[in-house]
Amino acid sequence: MSDLVREVSSADFQSVVLQSDRPVVVDFWAPWCGPCRMVAPEIDKLAQRFGGSVTVVKLNVDEAGDIAGRYGVMSIPTIGVFRGGKMVSHVVGARGADQLAKEFGLA
Question: Which residues are annotated as catalytic?
Answer without folding.
Answer: 33, 36
